[in-house]
Amino acid sequence: MYKYIVVIFLTLAFSQYNYSLEDLNPSSNFYEVNVGPSYFNGSVTLHYFGNFNWGLCTTRFAQLNDLYEDLLLNGYNNIELVGLGKTQHISSLNNWINSNSVSVCADESPNHASWVSWGANQRDLFILDENGNLVLQQNISNGLPNDLSEQIISLIDCDPNLICGEAETCFDDLLYPTTCGPENCDNPIGECDDNDCNPDLICGEMVTCWEDGLLYPTTCGPENCDDSIGTCSDEECTDGQIDNSNPCNPRECFDGQWFEIIIDCAEQMGVPCEGGLYIAPSEDVCCSTCVLYGDINQDGILNVIDAVEMVSLVINNNYDSISDINNDNSVNVLDVVLLIDLILN
User: Fold this and answer.
1) Which end of the chain is more exposed for a tag (fewer CB within 10 A), N or C?
2) Is 94 part of any domain?
3) pLDDT by residue (tens digit) across 72-121?
4) What is the pTM of this model?
């Protein structure tokens, strides 16, 4: 009877604050595993929502990662940090997975079911205790709380000073590096492996959809220990067919299956916009555009038309970042003089 009570309790605890999304960070211990609060049951979990392609979102995630690593260095290993973005910004994923080993997931666009069920907004931080109960929900656009480390440590029910045997041990279907399991604040290093596979099988070289709903590079599926290369699609397509309905996630058909094409945008790759600013793209375009300071009509040329428009901005006391050539947060006669100098030279 007590077993059923525990199961019902866990179901209620994780009913709202839960998700199961693939970890996209190759440096994470849980890469390509579907993670979420219920997966990390028994650990204090931090869940950060933001856009992969927004600078402030990336900055706050980096600050959370620094705090997380400091806690780990002090022996508080029973903690997990997960970043949740959106698949529509997947081309900017590298902004969140460079130089860290935490789990990073992408909620499926356009519905963003996990964001909606959590009631999450940009740069919202949720902290769940070891039983999956919500203890903090805060927007950190203005910075991390000063006592965030102390709040997290107060939730941890483990002792990093335990003396444990050096042997990988399975606890609750998760693999830990010592015989203490999670009791010494260690993080799991993976799932307990109950599956048998044979890497020496002779297989056909053809992309195959397996019964687990995943695509594999050969006809043996996972039975020859291959990793999946994507998910199966129910949509029929013709080889060579291209789908540009999502400009940041175009798809091309190979062997009757859709595969996403990676779009590399200059801004997300760190290419500077010399002498100008990156302007956010329209809905049907993926990458931002580098526009020269003073090119108000964005035609790629600095000329008298831009000067006339800038004078109009000054007269009407309006502001436009492209017109703010000297970056003093105002558009005035100094910017007009600088623009005329650029045109003449």
Assistant:
1) N
2) yes
3) 988 888 899 999 999 999 999 999 998 899 999 999 989 999 999 999 99
4) 0.47
